[in-house]
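Dimethylmenaquinone methyltransferase: structure tokens wanted.
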Amino acid sequence: MTMLPFPLDFHERAKALGSSTLYEAAHLPCAVDSAIRPLFDGAFIAAPAYPLECSPGDNLGLHLAMERVPRGSVLVVGTGAFIAGYWGEVLTVAAEAAGVVGLVIDGGVRDVAAIKKRQFPVFTRAISVKGTVKASAPSVGQPFNFNGAWVAQGDLVVADDDGVIIVPKAEVARTLAEGEARAYKETQMMQALSDGRSTLELMNLAHWRTRG
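Answer:
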């Protein structure tokens, strides 16, 4: 069993907070390019990362990862944003058998109907029918900069309808705690708004009323 460096209830806490609140709480450059979107509405991932890089149009690294990835991980796959169908139904079935809980990739997937039917959470830059070769694997399990956020094995990936963030494993417990404090304050603010107070007042912006 893989020992996590963050709380055992991280999945439920991350899902309750969501990627946007956790991004604000992290105070880190941990947001991934917003062009990487969920394959279907409601897809959600909160899991330790297993990073790998594929050569453009080459998905050998994904096949190698299936024999190395710790169960309960999400694959974070860099392709240099080269669009092709690196992932489809076959790899989805293989991933489920290997205990992989999701995929974040910047290079494209296919077999969309089959993936949706299995409800396997995928976040991708594109959908592409183009096939791939199997000739090289630049890195499997090694850290790299994934579309704006550094990713290393064991970092926490949170992905939902708002986007994808990657929180360094050493910062996860703090980020969750600060996220919950932030969410509590927002709950209080929304109650005050319902009672008729304004955002200008609650956010100390009332002085702007006399400007502009």
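The radius of gyration is 19 Å. The longest strand covers residues 45-53.

Cheers.
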